[in-house]
Amino acid sequence: MAAKASVVMVLLVVVASVVMEGAEAATCTPTQLTACAPAIVGNSPPTAACCGKLKAHPATCFCQYKKDPNMKKYVNSPNGKKVFAACKVPLPKC
């Protein structure tokens, strides 16, 4: 499980680098969601920290992540959807 979380962390850093090149870099920073990695990659329930980060993250960023080839597999995954539901954060329809 630690290896999977490490892979997600690396991917999030790579994606953050790509996002920082875009116009919305100041507000869309996927590394802010690393608290959710164990729940999205594994089967553990989301922590309060994860839910807090999801709720504070701009909805427009989730649309951006859903379109990003590196991020969409996490946002659109069954576990990703479970995390959003458990945290009571609606995934925006983009």
TrEMBL record:
Cited InterPro entries: Bifun_inhib/LTP/seed_sf, Bifunc_inhib/LTP/seed_store, nsLTP2
Name under which the protein is recorded: Bifunctional inhibitor/plant lipid transfer protein/seed storage helical domain-containing protein
CDD domains: nsLTP2 (cd01959)
Residue ranges constituting the Bifunctional inhibitor/plant lipid transfer protein/seed storage helical domain according to the UniProt record: 28-94
Gene3D superfamilies: Plant lipid-transfer and hydrophobic proteins
Family (UniProt): Belongs to the plant LTP family. B11E subfamily.
Annotated SMART domains: AAI (SM00499)
Record GO terms (molecular function): lipid binding
Signal peptide: 1-25
Record keywords, A-Z: Lipid-binding, Signal, Transport
Keyword RNA-binding: no
One biological process term in Gene Ontology: lipid transport
Organism of this sequence: Leersia perrieri
